[in-house]
Write a structure and sequence with these properties.
412 residues; eight-stranded mixed β-sheet; 16 strands; elongated; binds zinc ion
């Protein structure tokens, strides 16, 4: 017997029960984002490797060891996208939209990172992301967060709390960075190897270390929110006032950081305790520096992303596809008519499985297995009268109906 092939480790199949949840997430996203005038874009899965080297950065784990990057047959360096923001910025610039006013985009689809599957990480994961370009003030940040809250609420995801922080800007961050580096250097001997590596390169990431020994050292570390300039303070106050006005509850968490320099001012995470230590459900922030760093004009931008697998874990109800009617044909003479019955019901939006004719016992067994709500039985009498015998399986109730009556009963 031939050897069975397996999917790549960390890459899972989307089977019907899981996809039912993804579809619900997608439907809610289209509805909620649509009311905020956010349009869907569909961006390439393959991008030039350089795009992520320049945006996400060479020194990050993502670019240095997690990208599926390779040289194709033509010698071009391409990779499977590890995240969505960089591609969105590239597309925005490539389409020449920087002068076209604010652009509000969202996208859904697979991202790829070669992470360690033994830790439960997925190497292909579904992400839903939102990017707003050309929107500056704190009102936009508050509205984006209100939209994210509405999205989670509509999905029925509860026990999620919003944490916000300010990351400062190019004017105020350098002084804070110096203060933080000085503080960390005094404690370097007690920090882990990764943190020691980051003290000079990316000191804010040290605050984010999951190592308990490190966290114990950082209790009174200087915080960005205490070092922001006047403009950043005004922006942060405006964000909080906007969230209050919109009834979005939040806490300030001075430890929220982003590893990358182009993030500024607003950073946020919706977190939950229901998923163990890895509690982030949806995260994002303002990244006013990215468009410029990828060769465009200075452009304000803010966005977020959420992993669909994680959202799905927090959702209770999956609206699995329900078979409304199984059509059973008794005798060869009824087969042609029974096929037409199935087709007509489908044209009316009814989900139908045709049992295929043949032995009655097998067809009724099939109806059971499909979990159908109704069985429409067609024999010679029904063919002659142009009706079906409709049986509701939950009640055992049976009646003779024409097509219109079948639709009414099924949709009731
Ligand atoms: Zn500032
Ligand atoms: Zn550490």
């Amino acid at each position: 017997m031939a050897k069975k092939l397996q999917s790549i480790r960390g890459i899972h199949d989307g089977l019907p029960a899981e996809v039912a949840k993804w579809r619900k997430i997608e439907d809610v996203a289209r509805t909620v984002f649509g009311t905020h005038a956010v349009s869907e874009v569909r961006l390439p899965i393959l991008e030039p490797t350089e795009l992520f080297v320049r945006s996400v950065g060479e020194e990050t784990d993502i670019v240095s060891k997690e990208m599926y990057a390779f040289e194709d047959q033509g010698g071009d360096n391409i990779c499977l996208r590890p995240e969505g923001t960089a591609g969105a910025v590239r597309a925005y610039l490539q389409a020449g939209l920087t002068r076209a006013g604010a652009q509000r985009w969202f996208y859904m689809g697979p991202m790829f990172r070669r992470e360690r599957p033994q830790k439960g990480r997925l190497r292909q994961f579904q992400q839903i992301g939102v990017e707003w370009f050309g929107v500056a003030g704190p009102v936009a940040d508050a509205e984006l967060l209100s939209m994210a809250q509405c999205f989670l609420d509509t999905l029925g995801i509860q026990q999620v709390r919003l944490e916000i922080n300010s990351l400062g800007c190019v004017a105020c961050r350098p002084a804070y960075r110096d203060a933080l580096i000085a503080y960390l250097k005094e404690r370097a001997a007690s920090l882990c190897a990764t943190c020691n590596d980051r003290i000079e390169k990316n000191p804010m990431r040290v605050l984010d270390c999951k190592n308990e020994t490190c966290q114990a050292q950082l209790g009174d570390a200087p915080e960005m929110v205490g070092h922001v300039c006047g403009d950043c303070a005004t922006h942060f106050a405006g964000l909080k006032a906007g969230l209050d006005a919109l009834g979005v509850r939040y806490e300030v968490n001075p430890r929220i950081v982003r590893g990358l320099d182009y993030y500024n001012r607003t950073a946020f995470e919706f977190v939950t305790d229901q998923l163990g230590a890895q509690g982030t459900v949806l995260a994002g922030g303002r990244y006013d520096g990215l468009v410029e760093s990828l060769g465009g004009p200075a452009t304000t931008a803010v966005g977020f992303a959420a992993g669909m697998e994680r959202l799905a874990m927090l959702m209770t109800d999956a609206d699995a596809l329900v078979v409304d009617v199984v059509v059973v044909a008794l005798g060869d003479a009824a087969l042609a008519y029974s096929l037409q019955v199935a087709k007509q019901l489908r044209e009316q939006g009814v989900a139908v499985v045709h049992a295929g004719g043949g032995a009655a016992k097998r067809q009724f067994k099939l109806a059971d297995r499909e979990g159908a709500r109704f069985v429409a039985v067609v024999g010679e009498d029904e063919v002659q009268q142009g009706v079906v015998a409709l049986k509701e399986l939950a009640t055992g109730e049976q009646k003779t109906c024409d097509m219109a009556e079948v639709c009414l009963s099924v949709k009731a």
